[in-house]
Amino acid sequence: MDTYITTPIFYVNAQPHLGHAFTTIVADTYCRYRRLCGDEVMFQTGTDEHGEKIVQAAQGAGVSPREYVDRISLMFRETWPLLAIKPDNFIRTTDPVHIKTVQDILQKVYNQGDIYFSEYSGLYCRGCERFLTEKELVDGKCPDHQVAPEPITEQNYFFRMSKYQQWLIDHINNHPEFITPERYRNEVLSFLKEPLEDLCISRPTSRLTWGIPLPFDDRFVTYVWFDALINYLTGIGYPGGENFSRYWAVAEHIIAKDILKPHAIYWPTMLCSIGLVPYKKLHVHGYWNIGETKMSKSLGNVVRPAEMVEAYGADTVRYFLLREMSFGLDSGYSADALLIRQNSDLANDLGNLFSRSLTMVAKFAGSRVPAAGTPTEIDRELRDAAMTMIDTYRREMDHFAFNRALAAVWEVISRANKYIVENAPWDLAKDADKRERLDTVFYYLLETLRLISLTIEPVMPATAVKMRQALGLGHEPDLTTQATWGLLAPQSVITLPEALFPRLDTGKKKKTGPAQAGDKPLKTMTPTENPEDENLISFDEFKKIDLRVAEIVAAEKIKKSDRLLKLTVMAPEERTIVAGIAEFYEPEQVVGKQVIIVANLKPTKLMGIASHGMVLAIKDKGSLSLSAVSSQVTPGSKVS
Ligand SMILES: [Zn+2]
């Protein structure tokens, strides 16, 4: 199947920020995923370079518009490789081929009578570069720019958008997946309940010259949105190009919700007027908030992609953004949350599973993939979990539910970590009679890791390459042929990898962007207000507390309790602890984690279950974080 994936072309009145990066990471990830599924994919991004705001920004920078757009466009072009983003085409609306395409389309639409000349009086917002309706104003001001729009009367050209209103409503109703997620489809349909006004598509050159001249009247340039949307056609060679006939019908646009209206209303009606079928799908995502507020230049809390990559690496940034945001909804960015994902999900869960497994195969199996013996129930369970992961992953990736796709992968990572503890290969290795059992355990682990490496390729391409190299896999990853169990060839050689993810020190984390409200160190030393002896304990008293590292091997919810999880831990013996963490952790999130427990607390019954010990956790501003050890240790190790 062919797929054509686009980001919006980004407006060059500002440098690339987190929002641009997210849209483009989503596009790149989806593109890699479709290729992994065997599709031919065309991926386009670029920059939008005309309009009044560009002229103003250039004036502010003291350069010509041309110099200005060249400079900022280059910044976008140079940012994407830092994030491992590989577009097939980078389009600029100042490209001569694009200017010609826009003029040809304007002439065509004009010739058939869908563009007319008229006088218009209205309230014009320079920030928005359009006329606002009375309804859109808040206290007489543009809500986005906080300035009162200017009353302007001028003659302009208009596109008969209203003519296509009923057609658009019918199209959306007949194609449930045309605009996704559903909340945005509903938003558009609700907007279309009101009569659609025609779209002003010109600006007089007396006011603006930095734009594409109308082919039928050189006293006007083209309104920036009418120009910009056409990039999706120019990039694939409309009207005569081979790529156009191949890719247009399968176009999928990815945008942030602020530009829903131009993409869901202007664009399909323009296409209908041109005589083209509409794009196939519009995928709409929400905003990234910084702390509690929206990211904005005026607030000075803009997060720059290049700085994020420098601090954490491209794969971590990609993983974090895709894991953290539920596609379509707003999400919060904080350096703390990123650091926790890096240390917990990546360094601890995936990184440790991978290095532990390969280190043991190197040590106990001479760095060769052993042949599996007869599987037992526990092996079949791991295999089934891995195969279910592939199904869930594909289903969720198909629907842009990247967070759920990754959660399914991390469930299996936890399962595999637990599988190691349950099978204790280090014990099996001591007994020559258990050789076949040991080989089976290793084979099942390595095969699970191979499948995991396939699923993370679209999200963390560099990590996937490292995993595949260490596992001795030569060929390119391919979900259509390699997502079956048992393809890892016995006797093939594995190599010990370098650590997949460094564990970052929470105290020394690098700065990304300006200081943020959520950026406080995870732990702060608070001097006691009354440091009298009564607050202190003696060393002998401290020694009475048996603190140990426990590895969580199983976790389940407790019926009728929203707060409690029943944990099975190894410390080193197996024991049950009931912990009040259910509001903050799903059972599958804690399995495989090493935590610190108070091991000699008197047993107590909670909801009818005997709890032997207490898990230490940190409460912080309404959230909760489990205690952790900085590197994997033997379960049961004493903390002193
Ligand atoms: Zn405005």
Order the strands across the largest sheet as they lie in space.
3-2-1-12-13-7
What is the percentage of strand-forming residues? 15-25%
**What is the helix tally?**
21
Q: Pairing-aware structural class of the strands and helices?
A: alpha/beta
Average pLDDT, to the nearest integer? 91
Bound molecules: zinc ion
User: Helix share of residues?
Assistant: 40-55%
Largest sheet: 6 strands, parallel
Bulk shape: elongated
Ends: how far apart? Answer: 59 Å
Could you tell me the radius of gyration in angstroms?
29 Å
Low-confidence runs of at least 5 consecutive residues: 508-534
- The count of strands amounts to 25
Q: In words, what does this structure look like?
A:
- By secondary structure, the chain is α/β, with parallel strands linked by helices.
- The protein is 40% helix and 20% strand.
- It has 21 helices and 25 strands.
- The protein has a 6-stranded parallel sheet with strand order 3-2-1-12-13-7, with helices on both faces.
- Strand 24 and strand 25 form a beta hairpin.
- The protein is elongated, with a radius of gyration of 29 Å.
- The termini are far apart.
- Residues 508-534 have low confidence and may be disordered.
- Residues 125, 127-128, 142, 144-145 line the site of zinc ion.
- The site of zinc ion has 6 residues, from loops.
